[in-house]
Amino acid sequence: MDHELTRILYVEDDPDIQAIAVMVLETINGFTLEACNCGSDALAKAVQFKPDLVLLDVMMPGMDGPETLKGLRAFPELATTPVVFMTAKVQPQEVEGYLNLGAVGVIAKPFDPMTLAQELRDIWLRQ
Q1: Other C-beta atoms within 10 Å of 76: how many?
Q2: pLDDT digits (tens, 9 = 90+) for 43-65
Q3: Which of 54, 64, 59, 66 is nearest to 123 (CA)?
Q4: Which of 11, 17, 18, 38 has the smallest CB count inside 10 Å?
């Protein structure tokens, strides 16, 4: 990428997981985060927030991660924004399915709070 990763749209319905990730990414690593509790919240905030990257939970009530990704891609401003799925479903065929949907990476849950920021930076640099 032509600039440093700084702005992350983070979509996670579990408040405990969201709190840990926000603490690690925003407070400790200095990213600017827009945390959303659901896909519809992400669609409402994404364009105005202008994320460098979207970190997206796969399994959420209502609009799941893949549906949210499809909704985000409908906005011209977000058509090429990198998306990383975060999920407990990381069997090889599942990961391949997420990548086929257009994700640039998959992070397994439970994630390691000590390495999450670096994992995202590594995925960003591979783009």
Answers
A1: 8
A2: 999 999 999 999 999 999 999 99
A3: 54
A4: 17
User: What would the DSSP string read from start to end of 46-99?
Assistant: HHHH--SEEEEES--SSS-HHHHHHHHHTSGGGTT--EEEEES---HHHHHHHH
Residues whose CB falls within 8 Å of the CB of residue 85, separated by 6 or more in sequence, listed in order: 56, 57, 58, 65, 98, 103, 105, 106, 107
Domains of the chain, with CATH numbers?
Answer: 7-126 (3.40.50.2300)
What pLDDT digit, counting tens, does each position of 74-127 carry?
999 999 999 999 999 999 999 999 999 999 999 999 999 999 999 999 999 998
Eight-class DSSP state of 29: T
Quick one: tokens of 99?
A: 């990548």
Q: Cα separation of 75 and 23, whole Å?
A: 29
**Contact predicate 118/47, CB 8 Å:** no
Q: Which two tokens stand for residue 54?
A: 């979207």
